[in-house]
UniProtKB/TrEMBL annotation:
Part of the tripartite ATP-independent periplasmic (TRAP) transport system. Its main location: membrane. It comes from Aquisalimonas asiatica. This is TRAP transporter small permease protein. The chain crosses the membrane at residues 28-50, 65-83, 104-122, 142-165.
Length: 202
């Protein structure tokens, strides 16, 4: 067996263990909500199509439910994307930095983005409160809109926490982290010369 990496050899502090346990719990909840919403949306669409073909009767409120599920998937998925570092990043300047400058940049980006997401969560919470006070609901199924829109402030808040956890991880670890659990790294792309050498001779 190979030697253990510095990441594996470094003992985890009690605070880090608690954070990781909470993070895993939140990830499980997010995956369950996103996967369940996608499956439910697929079932609704399939049932609607089969009902129209066989009985000429579709699923009432199909459009409303799928639109609400898309909202739920989008904002709950924001936090999951940040946790797994699967979000879009513009790193032209960041990729040119090395050493302390690179570490400082990733910390500033994480703290700043987290703060922005918390501000968006605050604004989204105000919108949800307004929607609740006005008693707005869907037209066909009469579903209260605030029950779905509440995913916006929750998703923004969880994503903001993830960015701040990324900053915490980079401040307390010698390695570079794209998220609290994901080390920084890119897949190596072979150059043309290497590809030509690997091709079998005709």
């Amino acid at each position: 067996m190979g030697a253990a990496s510095p990441r594996q050899m470094r003992p985890r502090s009690p605070v880090e263990q608690v954070i990781r346990a909470i993070d895993r719990t939140l990830e499980y909840i997010e995956v369950t909500i996103v996967a369940g919403s996608i499956i439910l949306m697929a079932l609704i669409m399939v049932t609607h199509v089969l009902g129209r073909m066989m009985f000429r009767i579709g699923v009432p409120g199909r459009t409303e439910v799928t639109e609400l599920l898309i909202v739920l998937i989008t904002f709950v998925g924001v936090s999951y994307a940040v946790r797994r570092a699967r979000h879009i990043s513009m790193s032209a300047i960041y990729d040119t930095l090395r050493g302390p400058a690179r570490k400082t940049m990733i910390v500033l980006i994480s703290v700043g983005t987290g703060a922005l997401l918390f501000y968006m969560a605050w604004e989204a919470a105000g919108y949800v409160e307004t929607t609740y006070n006005r008693g707005r609901s869907t037209s066909a199924l009469n579903i209260p809109l605030w029950m779905i829109y509440i995913s916006m402030p929750i998703g923004f808040t969880l994503a903001g926490i993830q960015y701040w956890l990324t900053a915490f991880r980079n401040l307390t670890s010698p390695e570079f982290y794209r998220s609290f659990t994901e080390l920084e790294g890119y897949d190596e792309v072979p150059d043309a010369a290497q590809q030509s050498e690997e091709q079998p001779k005709q």
